[in-house]
Amino acid sequence: xxxxxxxxxxxxxxxxxxxxxxxxxxxxxxxxxxxxxxxxxxxxxxxxxxxxxxxxxxxxxxxxxxxxxxxxxxxxxxxxxxxxxxxxxxxxxxxxxxxxxxxxxxxxxxxxxxxxxxxxxxxxxxxxxxxxxxxxxxxxxxxxxxxxxxxxxxxxxxxxxxxxxxxxxxxxxxxxxxxxxxxxxxxxxxxxxxxxxxxxxxxxxxxxxxxxxxxxxxxxxxxxxxxxxxxxxxxxxxxxxxxxxxxxxxxxxxxxxxxxxxxxxxxxxxxxxxxxxxxxxxxxxxxxxxxxxxxxxx
Length: 298
Known about the structure:
InterPro entries: AB_hydrolase_fold, Thioesterase
Pfam families: Thioesterase
CATH superfamily of the largest domain: Alpha/Beta hydrolase fold, catalytic domain
Oligomer: single chain
Domain Thioesterase: 24-276
Shape: globular
Protein name: Thioesterase domain-containing protein
Structural class: alpha/beta
C-alpha cells in the first residue's frame, strides 16, 4: 500500500471569469489529468464566457483512493452532494451550463437529478462519459491487462504531450509486465519518455492509474442512476475508451433526448486539442439564464 499524502488538489479551479451576463460553464472533472488541461476549452469559448472546473480529486476520500488501492470511502451520491455544495457557494446568477468528463459525467448526472426540478440546467453535456447502467457496470476482473494497458498508453501520451502509439496486437493476450515493456518502447519512440526510463518507475505510474480506474469502477458498480430529467448531449472521442460504441450506454437514461457528437482525439487528448475544444465549446456555451441549485439529499 502506498502512503497517503498530506493534501490533495483544490476542488474549484476558475480557468476563465465570466463577463457580465455572459454565463459560466461548470465542468465536473475526475482527476487523472490536472484540472488545468481544460484551459484549451477556456480559450475556445466565446470571449467573456466563464469556465470553472470542479475537481473531484479535491475531496480526500475520493483522491486518496487512487493512492491506497482504489477503494473509496464515499459514494456517487455523496460526491454529487459535495459538488452541489461547491456550486451553491459559487452561484452568482446568469446563464450556466453543467458538463462532466469521464466519471465526472456520472457525478454530474447524479447532481442534476438531486436538484429541485425548477433549478436544473436546461441540458447536461457529457464528455466521453460511460453510462452507469447495468450493461456497463462491470466487475473489476473485466478490466483485463490489454484493455488497461491501451488506456494507459493514451493517458501517458496526453500527460506527456507526446504520442504513445502501441500496436494493440502486441498487448492482446499478454500480461501486465510484457505490456508495459511495449508501452515503454512506444513512449520512448514517440519522445514521451526518455529511453533509459526505469521500468519500475513506469510500473508505479501504471499502478496508480489503474487504482484510479478501479476506484471509479467500484463507485459506479452499486450505483443506480435515475433517468435524466433534462436532455443529454454526449461528445465521444474518436478514440474513446469504448471504441465503436456510439452512445456509451446513455440511451436508457435519456428519455428527454440524447444528442451525440464526435470529437477529434482520444479520451484524454480531447481535453487539450484545439480542434476538439472547438467542437466542445459550441455545445457547452451557456445559452439561457439558469441558476444551479445546491444538491439536495434524497
